[in-house]
């Protein structure tokens, strides 16, 4: 679900309504970037109006949800005009990078873990005490970490991306498989049975669609999920700092699983259609993805017979939080919008109509699950199932993006297949790069 913004420093705004930046971290933006912002920001500026609220989203499928919330808010603000500007996530992150330093962002904005860099720079004001109390009362604090900085809450969680297995039940039955794989070893064994090939042995339907290409941090995020289910993790925290933790047996097992499926058994190839598209077209038997796929299948392949299942040990969770980036006459309306969006009725509508899983605790999902049983693997995970997230540190995106570039090449490298020593050397070099990035930011933990 996360995309890189790039490594930026940001000028701290001097208004008294923004908290001071942490000046001890690092120096910020160059004069050249400041000039670029001065030129680019007007394109994002909204007309000043106390009764117009602009919502910035990186998920176009959420536009109807935000419009619904805005319509409800008109009972309190009859003359309120809501403008929802929902664009592709990568473009959304670019406009945030350009607009937040000058105070020209939307009145309500979405951010994932990349919020850390803006919070560190002092570009997001603290919310009213009533909002902080609302968050503490209605959310598990493990879901709030990405919206916090130095122990303070700055945003309100809305929904989260989390992984589960999607599998084609007809293909499973045809292969004689009763139910989903239970262990990571099962995943590869199932993939071998499920892959379909032409007369020459070329796979035409992948047994397990893996994230093998596409650039960006998503490749590393998916690897991290498989790594976790092999008993490892990508980054580990020690004393408030971090270090790479994947150059070990678990990291080797995870990378070997990719190599076994791509190079050794060829249950999937980079040239094949992948992800939700392949699943909806009947060109893969199973894959791991977030809950949004349920809504996508309903639109594009309504007759597809499929089920979902939780992963063996746990999954990466990426919370999406709402922020009000400016104080002023509209900030109270903006916070009212954020709270309205998080009312139980609206969150259940969000789940049913987009399949994104709300962050708020205490919701009754039973009515939605009767209509969409595939959501059960996302909202009713088994005891002991662990949700982990990308640490809320400014270089997280860079670490993931650089690792992803290495992994994309490694997944098809025949010299690594069956060669533990070569795999270990690859992981050691990648981990050293991750640690160098952490050291540069004074975030590297001691061994």
Secondary-structure blueprint of this entry?
Layout: H1 31-40, E1 52-57, H2 63-73, E2 81-86, H3 89-99, E3 108-111, H4 115-120, H5 129-138, E4 148-149, E5 152-153, E6 156-162, E7 164-168, H6 169-174, H7 184-194, E8 196-197, E9 203-205, H8 218-229, E10 235-238, E11 241-244, H9 249-264, H10 275-280, E12 286-289, H11 292-300, E13 306-309, E14 314-323, H12 331-341, H13 344-354, E15 357-358, H14 366-371, H15 376-379, E16 386-388, H16 396-410, H17 420-440
Parallel strand pairs: 1-2, 1-3, 14-16
Antiparallel strand pairs: 3-14, 4-5, 6-14, 6-15, 7-12, 7-13, 8-9, 10-11
Description:
The chain is built from 17 helices and 16 strands. The N terminus is likely disordered. Strands 1, 2, 3, 6, 14, 15 and 16 form a 7-stranded mixed sheet that branches. It has a 3-stranded antiparallel sheet with strand order 12-7-13. Strand 8 and strand 9 form a beta hairpin. The longest helix is centred in the C-terminal third of the chain and has 21 residues. The chain is globular, with a radius of gyration of 22 Å. Helix 8 packs across helix 9 and helix 8 crosses helix 16. It folds into 2 domains: 187 residues, 3-Layer(aba) Sandwich (D-Maltodextrin-Binding Protein, domain 2); 204 residues, Periplasmic binding protein-like II (D-Maltodextrin-Binding Protein, domain 2). It has 447 residues and is an alpha+beta fold.
